[in-house]
What we know:
Elements: E1 3-4, E2 14-18, H1 20-23, E3 28-43, E4 47-62, E5 65-72, E6 82-85, E7 90-105, E8 113-115, E9 122-125, E10 132-138, E11 149-155, E12 160-161, E13 166-167, E14 179-186, E15 189-194, E16 199-203, E17 208-211, E18 215-221, E19 227-234, E20 245-246
Organism: Planotetraspora thailandica
GO molecular function: glucuronate isomerase activity
Pfam families: KduI
Amino acid sequence: MTHIPFGTASAGAWSVEITPESAAWDYCGLRVLDLDGDTVEFGTGQDEMLVVPLSGACQVEVDGERLTLAGRPSVFAGVTDFAYLPVAATARITGRGRMALPSARAARRLPVRYGPASEVPVEIRGAGRASRQVNDFCAPEAFDCDRLVAVEVLTPGGNWSSYPPHKHDTAGEGEAVLEEIYYFEGGPGYQRVYGTHEVLAEVGGGDVVLVPRGYHGPSMAAPGYDLYYLNVLAGPGDKRSMAFRDDPRHAWIRSSWAGQPIDPRLPFGPA
């Protein structure tokens, strides 16, 4: 199932649990944890992971280290700090709020690390009604991982993102092979996937859309409702990349942004 409504992929302590096995692919995963002062202990196994507060704050204990994540009130309040968890580790998370744990099957064991919010690159993409904000906290150039790539996208109500539609399923110049997870907060909004299989789903807080292949986009925020999504990507390439290819029917859209103003509602949170 490509569209996974909130509550349909829960398991044990996890309100969302997507593994390569459950998604029927090879690399990408995502867990979401809702905490109310309690502690959850788990093993990372074959996966490298991040702990990303969506709302609230937490403490992370792993490999004899204790990291305190200040977090944020909500995904629309600004960027957050985060933690990196290596493969073959036992971790404990204690806190209050909702925590996302994007993951990827990894071949190398990298050290535990803290990612400060002050070092998260923030960019504004598009223009006009295609204006959106991208928090590149775990983009290839921003934070070192073995295979995992993760970014946050925030789309003001009435705007489109993941636009023009694009794909990353064929190795070649300018395109990487990547599995991708969209995890949503806010909304309602709508997500489109097409080309090899068809999805047009209404999405909101806690929903997931899997993109094993094909064109995806736009992600549409309904007027009056801001939309957030966490993108988790991983693939077989030796080098981490987010290279993609636009749908050639819609690639011209990028040139239309010249001269259009950026949506003044951006950025969300402190600049």
